[in-house]
Write a structure and sequence with these properties.
Shape: extended
Helix content: 25-40%
Order of helices and strands: EHHEEEEH
Length: 94
Amino acid sequence: MNQIAEPKIIKSTYSDLPRKNRILLTVRQFSDKHPAFTQGSIRNLIFLAENRKTSRGTIQGNGLKIALIKIGKKLLIDEEKFFQWIDELQGGAN
C-alpha cells in the first residue's frame, strides 16, 4: 500500500522576530512606480552593483547590491533599501 505523507509544518528559525512588510519589485514594476528611473538606468545600476575585474584591475561596485534580491533567475529590488542607498550616496541627505 502507498501511504500519503502528511505535510510537514516548517517553522521559521526567526519566528520571534517582528515581520516587516517589504516591497519587492521587478525592474519594470520599479520603473513604472518611479518614472524618474527608466528600466535602462536601473539595469545599468544593477550591472554596476558588484565589483568587476578588468584588464586594468578591479573596479569597485556602486553598493546597490544591498537592495537586490535574487531568487533563481528573478531579480527583485527592495524599494526601501534602494532609497536608503540613494540617501547614502547623497551623504545621508533626505
